[in-house]
Amino acid sequence: VIIYWSGHGSRCADDGGDEKDGLDEYLVPHDGRLDDIDAIRNSMIMDDSFGRWLQELDGRRILVILDTCHSGGQGGEKGITRGVHSLAAKEEVEFDFLDSEFARMKDIGQRETALLASSTASQVSFERKEGDLSAMTYFLVRQYGQQGPLELNDVHAAIREGVTKYVEEKFPGTTQTPVLVNQLSGPFYLRPGRN
């Protein structure tokens, strides 16, 4: 299962007491409202809800692609870093949006998950100056234009290289580094090869 989100994301005060940093994260749909905390909770895609939706996919292999600012994580204390390493940076990375939600999935047997995030915890995710797509989505689409199988680790390496170079060139003094947090037991093909 591949779940893809390109858009805005943010956070608000945790109302369930399950977040280490006291904040719930959310994705902003087209009709999301920021009037007050009740409007946010009723109109956004909250991390707790998103996590429950993923739990319904138990037994399947899941790739979540988040193309939002700070999608690799937002808090210094929060994350699924235990034993999870960035294949790009060769270091532990923090994944904030589904922190406790991933932990709950592990408790019920949902282990086959991966996250491809457009940026690290401290970075914004840029839209291209050409006005067509976000930087990560553009390079992801370019990968689909290539021939042959598309394996997740290879796609991440190509996206990381393309996005990093593009942002450094078009937005001098800034960086954007796509992150892959991969807890899958074997290769994941976004497009399999032909037999």
How is this structure best described in words?
This protein is α/β, with parallel strands linked by helices and 195 residues long. It is 28% helix and 20% strand. β5, α3 and β6 form a beta-alpha-beta unit. α2 packs parallel to α3 and α4 crosses α5. The chain is globular and about 45 Å long.
Q: Count of DSSP E strands?
A: 9
Round the Cα radius of gyration to an integer and report it: 16 Å
Shape descriptor reads: globular
- Largest sheet strand order: 1-5-6-8
- Bin the helical content: 25-40%
- Sheet having the most strands: 4 strands, mixed
The averaged pLDDT comes out at 79
The low-confidence parts are 74-95
List the defining traits of the structure above:
28% helix; 20% strand; three-stranded antiparallel β-sheet; 195 residues; single chain; four-stranded mixed β-sheet; alpha/beta
Give a nutshell description of this structure:
28% of the residues lie in helices and 20% in strands.
SSE diagram, text form:
Elements lengths: L1 E5 L1 E6 L9 E6 L8 H7 L1 E2 H9 L6 E6 L31 H9 L5 E5 L17 H10 L5 E2 H19 L8 E4 L6 E3 L4
Parallel strand pairs: 1-5, 5-6
Antiparallel strand pairs: 2-3, 3-4, 6-8, 7-9
